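Handout, section B. The chain below has 613 residues.
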Amino acid sequence: MENRAREKNIIIAFFVICLLILVGRLVFLQLINQEYKVTASNNVLRYEIIYPSRGLIYDRNGNIMVGNQSAYDIMITPRELEPFDTTGFCSIFHLSREQMDKMLAQIDSRRRAIGYQSVIFLRQVSKEQYTRFLERAHRFPGFSVQTRSVRNYPSAICGNLLGYIIEADRNFLEKNPEYRAGDYIGRTGLEEYYEPWLKGEKGYSIYLRDVHNQIKSPYEEGAYDKPAVPGKNMVTSLDLPLQIFGEELMKNKVGSVIALDPSSGEILTLITSTGLSTEYLTNFGAYYSQVISDPLKPMFNRAIMSSYPPGSVFKLVNGLIGLQEGVVTPNVRYSCNMGYRAGSLTVGCHSHPSPLNLMQSVMMSCNAYYCNVFRNILDNPEYDNIVTAMDNWQEFVKSFGFGQKLGIDIPGELPGSIPGSGTYERIYGKNGWTSLTVISLAIGQGEIGATPLQLANLAAVMANSGHYYTPHLVREIPEDPEFRPTVERHHVMVDSVYFPVIVEGMYQAVNAPAGSGATARLAAIPGVELCGKTGTAQNPHGEDHSVFICFAPREDPKIAVAVYIEQGGFGASQAAPVASLLVEKYLTGEIHPSRQWLYERTLEQDLLTRHIE
């Protein structure tokens, strides 16, 4: 009996406790917490969204690259729509009666789905139109104005780098439920990659409606309104004046220029030419069809998306691998008689003194020398077979950052391609290829694909004698003290002791006296020890591509550069002047009088006809 009584008391106590919890919760919801009351009253409340301003984007010196300005959208609330002055409305916004009727019909077809919501009727009307509308707003029941900030750009450059803002589409909204129809999002570039920091947080104001669905007053005197939170500002590593100068040098040329600080991986310039002008970005949707149909593909970010043959600049990599593998030494000499010959195969070369050692081979960019080095790498008796040697070579090359994404902080980067034994076994079959079959890899041709960013990274590796840092564009986000750019230090598989002889070759390529056979003397800068390497990449669709990588000064380098100009011809003729002028501007602040002719010649070069013809 006692057990039964105890069980009965426990059950009664349980139900009493549950009842008290329910009563307490009800009191909290009804009398204390008004949020649920607000939610339940949506039929008599109207929420007006307050859009935040996006975070500003600065260069490394505090110059604004992306700012904000006010924009005005004309909103329509179908449930509040009444007969209105259509003639006056059309007059303000330069609409025909047919356009107006079509737009109203589209809204009417969505009336049930829209409900009491307000939706955008006209986007980004002018300030004059906004003012005229406000003066006559009483004539247009059901219409209102929504103010939001849109991007503005002090300079007309960097469109591919910065990215643009566009209204979120249905596919994006389905994957990101925190956004709603009418929200704008970053697309491409920094705007997309750093969307979580730049976007800010929407706010709202709550108003009461009367029985006629007209706004009566703020709800609870604004006690439950939520202010918008602006997006976070960010400071990039870019040098805006240098970027502007580089864009000027690349006018009427197609290609890329990347400059970075080899000691940190911070990108100083990232130029795509011909790229997307920022004049299109404020209202990108209106220009989309024009931009997308441009044959020069301005939306294509060549700096990180193009996979080009690197040409002769790749000889630096093969020379270093040969040194590490012990198949070549600085004093080994090879002859060159206008090229390399083996049986019926010939790899041509330009005229230069012969025979030559390793340093001279860099200075003169000798094809024959590197054909010998590359064959020594693949036919190295230390390996059981060419398959093993080839795969080992591939791993060496990848350690320099090729054949993989470097991790730059904008979307769209491609990894390029570095072949291994599997590539050639698929093409030629097992045991169907030799070192002669793939000899074009010796001079950066064949199946190698590299982005201009990877070539700039190679310049940084040379500057650092064997290591590089993750290339990145954003230095800090001041409002987020915990933010740190994702930067790692990477070491190549070649010991630093092997770099000086190759670097000396790069120095001599620029600074050796006339008659020495040096390929980049045009790039020499008075008072600056520039180290560089020319490249001429074969192009089966037209003129060869012009390539140049460099760093300066030789001791304690401050800048590493890669220039790739499509159909530019010899590396020394087009790419080298652009790179050296950029370096000179960055390190000295001006162009030396003795090089003004080169600056003017570079500006006058028009290579676009080679792409249009």
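Note. Residues 35-41 have pLDDT under 50 and may be disordered. Compare this with the example in section A.
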